Amino acid sequence: MTIRPIRNEADYDRALADIDRLMGSTPGTAAGDALEILVALVERYETEHWAIDAPDPLALIEHVMEARELRQKDLAAVIGSQPHASEVLNRRRPLSLAMIRALAAEWSLPADVLVREYELATVGAP
Fold this sequence. Notes:
By secondary structure, the protein is mainly α. It folds into two domains: 9-49; 57-114, Orthogonal Bundle (434 Repressor (Amino-terminal Domain)). The chain has helices at residues 9-22, 30-49, 57-67, 72-79, 82-89, 97-106, 111-114. α1 (9-22) runs antiparallel to α2 and α4 (72-79) packs across α5. The protein is elongated. The protein starts with 8 loop residues before the first helix and ends in a 12-residue tail after the last helix.
């Protein structure tokens, strides 16, 4: 098997077909090494061509709350108070470093996403 760079969709499709054929190969064998290299090439191609931006910090929090069936009071327990939870969820208060640390520790959320800038509600907006 000749492994070549992935430059376009046809190369990508071919690499995926090769990966499918090599799945289950024993690590350290020629087939296992080929599989490892192809997976790395596919991951690089996907990152370059179909990168997914990290979510907005509040979108992440809202998603986690919905997925885990958490309520605003659960957020308040982690970040300090009910008013702070309400203000954060309504984009009236930014997440503080202490809140970010607490969410990362208590809910296992990625701090690198939580520290991203996000839009707050404008003053006077409902």
